[in-house]
Amino acid sequence: MKQFLKKTFAAGLIVLLFIGLIKHDLISYLLMQARGQLNVLWNARTIDAVLTDETVDAELKTKIEFVREVKLFAEKELGLKSDGLYTTIYDQNGKDILWNLSASKPYVLESVEWYFPIVGSVSYKGFFDLERAKSEEQLLKKEGYDTRIRPVNAWSTLGWFSDPILSKNLERSKGSIAELFIHEITHANIFIKDSLTFNENLASFIGEQGAKLFMANKHGIENMVYSKYIESEFDVQKFIKHCLLGVKELDSLYSGFSSEMLNTEKNQAKKTYLKDWVQRLDSISFSDDSIYHGRFQKKLPNNAFFMTFERYDSKKEDFKFQLESQFRGDLKKFIEFYKMED
What we know:
mainly alpha
């Protein structure tokens, strides 16, 4: 395994050096990403080794076995192949190891995009180095962009490497774990270059629908575990709906800005709207209000925040309609259709 990684890393370096002759900033960034990715792959332990280690907590072993069940379900019931994926686990020691930076124009909902080999144009950048992410964020802020940095504890290498389980992911609830891994396995099966919003929306939709099927299959719809997952998922969808409403309302607000308006006037109108949006969020009833109410008490959301929901959730209603009307609710056939389109 390690010998394979060395050869792969060496081949990658040759490619990166070639690209570096063209663009220095890109090679520097890609080398940083390669080092971070290699560190995770190199220091991950095999699942078999962890499961036979008597010093490892029994609860962790149970969560690992749960991921195995999710993988098996995804393959047999959904047709999502996961050969070679999640056969190792990387211990984060309770710390975040990767962060995403995204940015948007201040008075129009338009994300900054970066171009990378293989994946094409994307509207966020990943960093294994938080300080480097903050430095780049400051450059974007100086140019007037709205920015957002958020920790990421899952990513897909699109089947190029054996993606490991990251330990913080196992701190989630069972339904959330199932949703996350089905989402990431979807990326390894279906990926369309230069179509980030489509890819993320599709993976999010399949992750959510697949997790519901898995939880119902494993626990039964009358079981409390299933009921609590559906309840929390209902809260999530309420929040997403309000965020997508924010996208629509902000777009309408910005469309009304005239070319004669000063930036100070635009800022004030934007701030007034965002305060109202937050107040409306805090008035929505959730099964667990503590998760959603008061979360913007210290800092208002910005365009980069709202564009995240455009990226991951804006097309899911269309997918839902297609699933029901074209495939009569058969998620496996729905997935087969998009695997053929890939």
